[in-house]
Write a structure and sequence with these properties.
Length: 93
């Protein structure tokens, strides 16, 4: 059975929400973000999704996990954790 891009993205969304809820580690989050990238989703689209989730988690441990994921999306992290090339090139090393 062939999956459409929409169903693949929906599956990744579900995986991301579960990982965030479980306070997943950086490598688990990065693996999920790499799946978004491989599916053609842009850094801006994923950043938008994470920004949408953030208000409901203000000042809690879940917000920290969302911020970690956002750092990897925007490039505000070490080059080894960065997912999208060219994003945040001069921010962290």
């Amino acid at each position: 059975m062939l999956q459409t891009t929409q169903t693949i993205i929906a599956d990744i969304d579900r995986d991301l929400l579960a990982a965030l809820d479980a306070r997943a580690g950086l490598l688990t989050l990065r693996a999920i973000l790499l799946r978004y990238q491989a599916s053609g989703v842009t850094a801006a689209q994923v950043a938008g999704l994470l920004h949408e989730l953030r208000p409901a988690t203000q000042e809690g441990p879940l917000e920290d996990v969302i911020l970690d994921a956002l750092d990897m999306v925007t490039g505000w992290c070490t080059p080894q954790l960065r997912v999208w090339d060219g994003v945040g090139e001069n921010r962290a090393s």
